[in-house]
Amino acid sequence: MNTTNADPAELQKFSELAHRWWDPTSEFKPLHEINPLRLDWIDSCATLSGKKVLDVGCGGGILSESMAARGAHVTGLDLSEKALGVARLHLFESGRKVDYQLSSAEAYAAEHAATFDVVTCMEMLEHVPDPASTIAACARMVKPGGDVFFSTLNRNLKAYLFAIVGAEYVLKLLPRGTHEYAKFIKPSELARHCRNAGLSTQELIGMSYNPLTKVYSLGTDTDVNYLIHARRPA
User: Fold this and answer.
1) CB environment 154-164: b (16+ within 10 A), e (fewer)
2) Binding annotation for S-adenosyl-L-methionine
3) Most buried one in 38, 157, 178, 227, CB count within 10 A?
4) Whole-angstrom Cα distance, residue 227 to residue 48?
5) What's the pLDDT tens digit per position in 24-37?
6) What is the CATH number of the domain that holds 149?
7) Higher local confidence (pLDDT), 175 or 139
8) What is the DSSP string of 40-101?
């Protein structure tokens, strides 16, 4: 496994914005808005309460904290020291308990095989050089019978127009340069990576944004953003 599966430019980009992670009006506003959707979906698939959960690429801890609030015992992994500093600081405000660790998924997997009931890796795969390596690490860390959740961006013309041109340049939902089209991943590719890592895909669901109502929703449209629920065979 590639234990240094990280792009320094990507880490720098998110580290520079780390102090704004918990500002719901900042560059991270979309994460705050989609978090209830992805949290409810994950919880409906895996029932988080009492589960040992690993959040890979946790950043400032938006999803990690919300899963802890649902009764999960959460560990958050990230390679940005600044983001983790913000995440740890926010625990004093929220009163939640999350164990934040500075590590790549690959390095952590070497010491924590078959440890977690649930592993999440959301909005991260399109930011690493080798997404298959991250997926394999997640598969290694989940217990047999456990659940793994990924979310990323499809690679097609619509995704380019909506996620980059629309979101970054027209609507300004995200800072310019947040995404690189070449790193987007087709659902068929992600499903193949899951199979190669020994995971079976349970569900594929899309996430859409309506620019008129400014509302995100889950549904059948996987053309731009999508999520996958996979499981490690018992």
Assistant:
1) bbeeebbebbb
2) 38, 57, 78, 122
3) 227
4) 17
5) 998 888 889 999 99
6) 3.40.50.150
7) 139
8) HHHHHHH--TT-EEEEET-TTSHHHHHHHHTT-EEEEEES-HHHHHHHHHHHHHH---EEEE
Identify the domain containing residue 56 by its residue range. 8-231
**pLDDT class of 149 with cuts at 50, 70, 90:** very high
State the Cα–Cα distance between residues 34 and 63, nearest whole angstrom: 10
Q: In the beta sheet, which residues pair with residue 152?
A: 226
Angle CA(48)–CA(89)–CA(119) in degrees, nearest 5?
25
Q: Is residue 1 part of a domain?
A: no
Domain assignment present for residue 50? The answer is yes
Binding site listing: 38, 57, 78, 122
Range of lowest pLDDT (61-75, 162-176, 216-230): 162-176
User: Is 0.90 surpassed by the pTM of this model?
Assistant: yes
